[in-house]
Specification:
The structure holds two protein chains of two kinds. In chain A, about 20% of the residues lie in helices and about 30% in strands. By secondary structure, chain A is α/β, with parallel strands linked by helices. Chain A folds into three domains: about 180 residues, 3-Layer(bba) Sandwich (FAD/NAD(P)-binding domain), CATH 3.50.50; about 120 residues, FAD/NAD(P)-binding domain (3-Layer(bba) Sandwich), CATH 3.50.50; about 55 residues, FAD/NAD-linked reductase, C-terminal dimerisation domain (Enolase-like, domain 1). In chain A, strand 13 and strand 14 form a beta hairpin. The radius of gyration of chain A is 22 Å and the shape is globular. Chain B is built from two helices and five strands; from the N terminus they run E-H-E-E-E-H-E. In chain B, the strands form two sheets. In chain B, strands 4-1-5 form a three-stranded antiparallel sheet, with helices on one face. A two-stranded antiparallel ribbon of chain B has the order 2-3. The longest helix of chain B has 10 residues. The chains are: A alpha/beta, B alpha+beta.
C-alpha cells in the first residue's frame, strides 16, 4: 500500500486529492492542515462572511465521495520534510512517511514591522481571522486598511456597508493598480470615494500609537489617523519554510514544471495552488505564481495525473500547462470579472462602455491580447476567454 | 440521471459553470443564471467540474 501525503488542507489540497483519485490512484492519502477546519472557501471572508451574512459552516467545500477515505490531520502545522528519507515532520513531533508528496501549503499575509502596539492589528486569511475582525467592525468604528489590493478594497466596501469610517493607506498610485491598470484603478477609487472611503495613496504607516491596542496611526506625510482597528492586506508570503534543506528552488514559492512536478530526483513531488510557480503555455512559459481562486483547482487537475503516473513508474504528460487565470471581485454593486493576465500588460484599452459605468477593458502586451476585465459585463466575456485560450495554438 | 441544484441565494451569476457544461448552465440576456435541473448521466464529469469552479460553491450535484 503506497501513501500520498498532501501538506495543506485548503482548496488546493482537497482538489489534489480528488484529482489523484480520478487519475486512478486508489491507495492511501493523508492531508495535513494547520487550521482546525476542513477545506473551506476563502473569498467570502472579505465580503459576505465578514458582514455576518454567512455562517462559516456554510463555507466548507463539498468533498467528492472519492475522497471519503482520506485521513485528515487537522490543526497540526507541518515542521519540515526530508525528501531523501521521504518523510514529513509535524509540529507535534509526528513523522509521516510518503511515497508521493503534494505541496499545497499556500500563502499567508505579509506582516510589516511597524513600531507601536500590536493589539488591534489584524490580517485576513483564515476563518479565525475573519471572526476576530467581524467582532470589531461595528457601526461608527474607524478602520484603517493597509493595502489597496483586492482584499483591502473588498474589506473597505464591507466595512462601509457596516457603517464604519474607512481609511485605505497604500503606496500604490491607485487601488488594484497592478491587476487592473491606472484607468480602471482610478475609476474603482472613485466608486469607493462616492461611498465614503478615504484613500491615502502613495503613503505608508510609519508608526502606531496607543497602549495595548492601536488608537492612531502616523502616515509617512505626518498625517495622524484615529483607528479602532487596522486590517493589513499588503500582499502575501508563500509557506515554503518547511521545505528548506531539500535543494529546491524556493526563490518565490516553489518552482514546478508544466506538469506541476517539482524538479528533484529525491522523491515524486508535485505542487498546487498559490505557492506553485509554474510555467503557463498561454503566457510565454515564464514560471509565475498566480494567486487567483481558480488556480488551485486548475493546477490540481494537472498535478493529480502527474503524481499518479510517477507513482506507477510512468512518465507524466509534460505538455504545456494551459490553465487560464480568472478572477472575480464584488465591491458595492460592482462586479469585476477577469480572464487572463491583465497584470502583465503594457497597455489597456476600454473597448466598450466607460470605466465609470459598465465596461470591457482589453489588456495587451507585445504578443497581443493577454487579458480582459469586465465591469458589470459578465455575459460579454466568453469570446475573450476563447481568444485567450487560443493563444497557445497561435504560438504566442 | 444527474440531479443539479443551484442555491440561488448564493449564486452571483459569474457564469463560470457555463464554460464547463454549456448544455446545462447558461446566462440569460440579463446575465442571470439559468440551468437544467436534470441531465444525462454521461454529463456527470462536466457538471461536477462546473460545481468545482463555482466561486460561490452554489452548485450541488446528486
Amino acid at each position: 500500500m503506497r501513501r500520498v501525503v498532501i501538506v495543506g488542507a485548503g482548496l488546493g489540497g482537497l482538489r489534489a486529492a480528488e484529482s489523484l483519485r480520478s487519475a486512478g490512484y486508489t491507495d492511501s492519502i493523508a492531508i495535513v492542515g494547520d487550521e482546525v477546519y476542513l477545506p473551506y472557501n476563502r473569498p467570502p471572508l472579505s465580503k459576505e462572511a465578514l458582514a455576518g451574512g454567512i455562517d462559516f459552516e456554510g463555507l466548507e467545500f463539498r468533498r467528492k465521495a472519492s475522497v471519503d477515505d482520506v485521513e485528515w490531520l487537522l490543526g497540526t502545522p507541518v515542521a519540515g520534510c526530508d525528501l531523501s528519507l521521504r518523510t514529513v515532520t509535524l509540529c507535534d513531533g509526528a513523522t509521516l512517511e510518503f511515497d508521493g508528496l503534494v505541496v499545497a501549503t499556500g500563502i499567508r499575509p505579509r506582516r510589516l514591522p511597524i513600531p507601536g502596539p500590536t493589539g488591534g492589528r489584524y490580517a485576513l486569511r483564515t476563518a479565525t481571522d475573519a471572526l476576530a475582525v467581524r467582532e470589531h467592525l461595528k457601526p461608527g468604528a474607524t478602520v484603517i486598511i493597509m493595502g489597496a489590493g483586492f482584499i483591502g478594497c473588498e474589506v473597505a466596501a464591507t466595512a462601509i456597508k457596516l457603517g464604519c469610517t474607512v481609511h485605505v493607506v497604500a503606496l500604490d498610485e491607485e487601488p488594484m493598480v497592478r491587476p487592473l491598470g491606472l484607468e480602471l484603478g482610478a475609476a474603482m477609487r472613485r466608486r469607493h470615494e462616492a461611498q465614503g472611503v478615504r484613500f491615502h495613496l502613495g503613503h505608508t504607516i510609519v508608526a502606531f500609537s496607543g497602549d495595548d491596542d492601536v488608537r492612531s496611526a502616523t502616515l509617512s506625510d505626518g498625517t495622524e489617523l484615529k483607528a479602532d482597528l487596522v486590517i493589513e492586506a499588503v500582499g502575501s508570503v508563500a509557506n515554503t519554510e518547511w521545505l528548506r534543506g531539500n535543494d529546491l528552488d524556493l526563490s518565490d514559492g516553489l518552482l514546478t514544471d508544466s506538469a506541476m512536478q517539482v524538479p528533484t530526483t529525491l522523491a515524486p513531488v508535485v505542487a498546487v495552488g498559490d505557492l506553485a510557480r509554474h510555467p503557463n503555455g498561454l503566457f510565454g512559459h515564464v514560471p509565475r505564481r498566480i494567486e487567483h481562486w481558480n488556480m488551485p483547482t486548475e493546477t490540481a487537475r494537472r498535478a493529480g495525473p502527474t503524481l499518479a503516473a510517477l507513482l506507477r513508474g510512468e512518465e507524466p504528460d509534460r505538455s504545456p500547462f494551459l490553465g487560464l487565470p480568472a478572477f472575480w471581485s464584488d465591491q458595492y454593486d460592482t462586479k469585476l470579472q477577469s480572464f487572463g493576465m491583465p497584470g502583465i500588460a503594457d497597455n489597456a484599452e476600454v473597448t466598450s462602455g466607460s470605466v465609470d459605468e459598465a465596461c470591457i477593458i482589453e489588456y495587451f502586451d507585445a504578443s497581443g491580447l493577454v487579458g480582459v476585465v469586465g465591469v458589470d459585463r459578465t455575459t460579454e466575456l466568453a469570446p475573450y476567454r476563447k481568444a485567450l485560450l487560443a493563444r497557445h495554438e497561435q504560438g504566442r | 440521471m444527474v440531479k443539479v441544484t443551484v442555491d440561488m441565494d448564493k449564486c452571483q451569476h459569474y457564469g463560470q459553470c457555463c464554460f464547463e457544461a454549456e448544455d446545462v448552465f447558461a446566462l440569460d440576456e440579463s446575465g442571470k443564471l439559468v440551468y437544467s435541473k436534470e441531465a444525462d448521466e454521461s454529463r456527470r464529469a462536466d457538471i461536477e467540474s462546473a460545481a468545482d469552479v463555482c466561486p460561490m460553491q452554489a452548485i450541488t450535484v446528486e
